[in-house]
Amino acid sequence: GTGGLLARLRGEGHDRLVGIELDEKAICTCVCRGLDVVQDDLNHGLPTFADGQFDFVVLSQTLQTVMDVRRVLREMLRVGRRAIVSFPNLGYHKLRRELAEEGRAPRVFATEGYHWYNTPNVRFLSLADFEQLCRDEGFHVLQRLALDTATGQPVDDNPNLNADVAIAVLGAG
Predict the structure, then answer these.
(1) What is the pLDDT of residues 50-79, one digit of tens each?
(2) Could you tell me which of 167, 169, 171, 173 has the C-alpha nearest to residue 155?
(3) pLDDT interval class at 121 (50, 70, 90)
(4) Cα angle 36, 41, 42; round to 5
(5) 171 bridge partner residues
(6) Which residues pair with 148 in a beta bridge?
(7) 3, HSE (Cβ side, Cα atoms, 13 Å)
(8) DSSP, residue by residue, 94-145
(9) Gap between the Cα atoms of 160 and 157, Å rounded
(10) For 154, left (φ over 0), alpha (ψ -120 to 50), or beta?
């Protein structure tokens, strides 16, 4: 994106921050903000970076847009000791209702004007799907946070149904 997360982390005193972005306009915006960004496609892995180069690798609201999810997660854990992944939870009850009752594709990021035909999302996953993938691939979920972003509150009661966003901290198997 345009470096909002990187700028926030830098503002909190974190260093050794590097972003990855494919879009040239977004890269220019990041550079104008004084942020270090590499132009690359996550779908091709992270060959620019060495094993264990970072403490944390963050994939914020992007997992659902990549083609090879397993490869991206493996690469994140190769270059970082921990991976933090956030994604929209399609198991969220309001999105289920859109499909079940209205017969319409769920509108993730609807406030940004996305519809089924112009969404960057190529994967539609739920929190339960993600946790199953982690079990299957041997990724350790070290911490999980399910959120209701409308209230800004964590969700403990049936998070696959009641949280619209999930965040997980992963470690290698």
Answers:
(1) 999 999 999 999 999 999 999 999 999 999
(2) 167
(3) confident
(4) 90
(5) 140
(6) 153
(7) 22
(8) HHHHHHHHH-----TTGGGT--TTT-S------HHHHHHHHHHHT-EEEEEE
(9) 9
(10) beta
The model carries a pTM of 0.89
Q: Say if CB 8 and CB 2 are below 8 A apart.
A: no
Local structure of 79: helix, strand or coil: helix
Taking each helix axis from N to C end, the angle separating 127-137 and 69-79, rounded to the nearest 10 degrees, works out to 60
28 token code pair: 């220019």
Contact 5, 33 (CB under 8 A): no
Amino acid found at 144: R
Residue bearing tokens 């690798």: 57
Q: Which amino acid is at 143?
A: Q
Query: Hey, what are 137's tokens?
Result: 């691939």
